[in-house]
Amino acid sequence: MARVASEYPTELELLILKVLWEYSPQTARQIRDVLAERGRRLAHTSVITTLQKMVDKQQLVQLDPVEGKAFRFSPLISDQQVSRGMLGDLVNRVFDGSAEAVMLSLFDVSELDEDALKRLRKAFNQKLREKSHE
């Protein structure tokens, strides 16, 4: 059975987006080099094929070369758009839309130090204040 195409980036697409969110625009070779530095060694043709799919999906824009023949790529979607979309999808599919279930599950699977817990408490308190003013 063929896999249904997701509206969200694949693992490799997400790695490429992370490179481009940090350094943009970049050529395929530059992207490949950064991925290799981060432990993901890929054939140049694999990077080019993935970049073209990402252009087709409107995740990236292909920019004209400045010098030579190498196209440069830049993201059309932000890290916030991707993270909110993917997280929202996860919350809906796995936790039936329950933010509370997500948070309780995160406490079970994540190590939180005292500073992280203080930041979370501050965020919860801010949300409570916002809700009480609605």
Q: What fold name goes in the CATH topology slot of the largest domain?
A: Arc Repressor Mutant, subunit A
CATH architecture of the largest domain: Orthogonal Bundle
Shape: elongated
The CATH H-level superfamily of the largest domain is: Winged helix-like DNA-binding domain superfamily/Winged helix DNA-binding domain
Computed CA radius of gyration, to the nearest angstrom: 19 Å
Mean pLDDT, as a whole number?
A: 90
Give the total of beta strands.
3
Number of separate domains? 2
Strand percentage, roughly?
Answer: 5-15%
Task: Assign the CATH class of the largest domain.
Answer: Mainly Alpha
Supply the number of helical segments.
6
**N- to C-terminal distance:** 48 Å
Query: In this structure, how is the largest beta sheet organized?
Result: 3 strands, antiparallel
Specify the helix fraction band: 55-70%
Order of helices and strands: HEHHEEHHH
SS content category: mainly alpha
Arrangement of strands in the largest sheet? 1-3-2
Residue stretches low in confidence (pLDDT < 50, at least 5 long) are none
Question: What would you say this structure looks like, in words?
Answer:
It is a single chain. The chain is built from six helices and three strands, in the order αβααββααα. By secondary structure, it is mainly alpha-helical. It has two domains: 1-97, Arc Repressor Mutant, subunit A, CATH 1.10.10; 99-134. Helix 2 (28-37) crosses helix 3 (44-56). The chain is elongated. The mean pLDDT is 90.
